């Protein structure tokens, strides 16, 4: 019996446009609620949400029990963190702040077992192999890993073609907020110069035959990015939707 089929990997590779939500409340119970909303995928955010491996694990279990497909963003490209995420059963990873071909290649190798990489062998103890109940896990795991790298700086854009040429990387996600900051437009990812850079990069990613990812809660921004080819499309953030609805409710009663 092989490693589980990674539907997110294969549906993105087939060119499907899949819409998802950032999950940032760092709690399995809250994630379970978000998983009833009906998004194609849910990104469990280990970069900006206060997560550790146990909270990531509990949230992953909640998403795996739902119709939504899981992907996990880690705090950085640390191979040890990647190893832990894969061992708890994440098969799709989003890794932030990638700025060079060498960094991209090292990150890819951290997701692969020898001889194709240097992922530590220990899944027999972990959810990834269903606690050693998947006998062929070690020899089939690599093929079901979906690795999407975040390019979100001018240096990353300069290295984009080299990164896209690396076989085994499934896609590149353009981070509008961090790219805006690096371009001198801190807090304004909608600045024309930034949106042009984002959409131009998305076109290059799709032209290279890879998954092109982006996140925005602005429908017009999303439309521009989808016109440029984005197919891994983050359209909502749970924290913002949650507090936004509560603030609206509070304000409406304060008027009365
Ligand atoms: O740079 C970006 O934009 C992203 O990578 C997404 C943010 O990290 C996300 O937290 C929304 O601001």
Automatic annotation (TrEMBL):
Keyword field contains DNA damage: no
Domain HpcH/HpaI aldolase/citrate lyase as annotated: residue spans: 20-242
Enzymatic reactions: D-glyceraldehyde + pyruvate = 2-dehydro-3-deoxy-L-galactonate
UniProt feature coiled coil, ranges: none
Gene Ontology cellular component terms for the protein in this record: cytoplasm
Keyword match Metal-binding: yes
GO molecular function terms attached to this record: aldehyde-lyase activity; metal ion binding
Superkingdom of source: Bacteria
Names of the cofactor(s): a divalent metal cation
Pfam family, one: HpcH_HpaI
Keywords: Lyase, Metal-binding, Pyruvate
InterPro entries: Aldolase/citrate-lyase_domain, HpcH-HpaI_aldolase, Pyrv/PenolPyrv_kinase-like_dom, Pyrv_kinase-like_dom_sf
Family: Belongs to the HpcH/HpaI aldolase family.
Protein's recorded name: 2,4-dihydroxyhept-2-enedioate aldolase
Organism: Roseibium suaedae
